Amino acid sequence: MKAMTLNDYGTEASFVEADMPRPAAAPDQVLVRVKATSVNTIDTMIKAMGKDLPLSPDLPAVLGMDFAGIVEEVGEDVTGFAMGDEVYGCAGGLADLQGALAEFMSADARLIAHKPKASSMREAAALPLVGITAWEGLHRAGVATGQKVLVQGGAGGVGHLAVQLAHHLGAEVSATGTGDSQLSVIEGYDARPIDFAVEKIEDYVAAHTGGAGFDAVFDTVGGANLTNSFAAAALNAHVVTTVALSEIDLSPAHFKGLSLHIVFMLLPMLHDVRREVHGEILANLAKLIDAGAVKPLLDEQRFDLSQIGEAYARLQSGQAIGKVVVEV
What we know:
By secondary structure, this protein is α/β, with parallel strands linked by helices.
């Protein structure tokens, strides 16, 4: 089968086309003919940092975590899937799990679900990692009807789905972004857009929460921005972050009694713990998409497998609006 591999790690490393043996479906796995995959920030980090990250695969490496495709083989003990089924998931591209930058990949059946009927392969491939992350973060924060929720980075990969899911849960949603494109995306999801480059935290907290602060803040920006999330949160509120790779003073969180939740959705893949939860989330997400409650946002530029380097560069440029998707 055709695959795009890395023979070296580093910012200057290039993907190389290779002919690899087609994998087989082991027990509890399905073999998927990959039709599309998407690029996530963690993919670019693995490529750049290599073995400095404990989750990076050995070289030569086939990256790519998210995928949508068609079941070609069903392994022993697999139920719920059959040959020809259209599926999607986040099931490889790290540790010893081959990724989706290939014509075929084997996937643990617990990590996948039937593709939303309303979604194309491209749209479905954009969803798994960011969708699971958004779902888990909102669940941990206990977001419910009537709450005031702030999503930091509401036009980003995780952010645009967190906005829609929080709205579906009945929350009053505000989201930060900047520039006409980002703010238009946020408004299009029935959320209140906040231009973080123009509006001060104390001003939008006063305007939208009466000065009390938000009941939950979902921070997809992370790092130093966590301080802004603490400032925007109400007393005893929940703050969720997907980017906690930094040293930060937690005093503001302490004096507000905040609960801080760090979401790292790769844990089930890395440690084979509760993988079935990811399949369940994806199945529920598919129902919401088919009901019209959630819709993925895709960047306008299209790439095929041979252009994977350009796709990575597009994401890293900061110019993409929505998920960067690669067709296989």
